[in-house]
Amino acid sequence: MMAKKLKTKIGDIFSVPINDEEKRYMQLIAFDLTQLNSDVVRIFEKKYFLGENPDMENIIKDNVKVYAHCGCDFGLKLNLWKKEGESSNVGNIKDVLFKGTSEYARKEGEEPTKISNKWYIWRINDENFTQVGKLEGENRNAFIGLVINPLGIVELAKGNKYPDNYPDFE
Q: Which domain of life is it from (predicted)?
């Protein structure tokens, strides 16, 4: 018997359990060609009880807690989240700003960099990665642009820093 192939699409909304009683919702909003053609999700701030079934349109009116790159299909396969619905309203993806630093990659045995001043920024599907050095102004609000594994997405939904060894900017 062949395994069923999962297929997610832009607009899909997922519930992500964050503890034994609560969940948050996230929505697939884009595929970022500049970051391995990975899925881009937005995780919303409001927590819901596991048994609650809010209206999808009300969910996406909430403030965004974090934007992240991931593989939604992989998280579904691992049963870390569940598809709950969809909405064509994905917000303005041109406003989403990501950051990265070359100081994240380190050699085995070296201490991780605590503070980086070698940042670059980009927007979804914009091939112009801009070296900015120290993060200032709106760049300070940029989201980490790594492709995050599904367990890391759950950590972000819980409100935890992920990856925990990624440098800060101050």
A: Bacteria
Domain assignment present for residue 63? The answer is yes
At 80 the pLDDT is 98
Cβ(150)–Cβ(88) below 8 Å: no
Note whether residue 105 is domain-resident: yes
Buried b or exposed e, range 75-94, using 16+ CB within 10 angstroms: bbeeebbeebbbeeebeebe
Q: Judge whether residue 164 has pLDDT over 80.
A: yes
**Parent domain of 119:** 12-158
pLDDT of residue 111: 80
CA 148, CA 136: separation in Å to the nearest integer? Answer: 24
Q: Is the dihedral of CA 70, 133, 124, 58 positive or negative?
A: positive
50 found inside a domain: yes
**Residues contacting residue 3 through CB under 8 Å, at least 6 positions apart:** none
Are the beta carbons of 42 and 27 closer than 8 angstroms?
yes
- State the sign of the Cα–Cα–Cα–Cα dihedral 82, 32, 108, 156: negative
Q: Does any domain span residue 164?
A: no
Confidence of residue 28 (pLDDT cuts 50, 70, 90): very high
| pLDDT tens digits, one per residue of 100-122 | 998 876 677 778 888 999 999 99
Domain count within the chain:
1
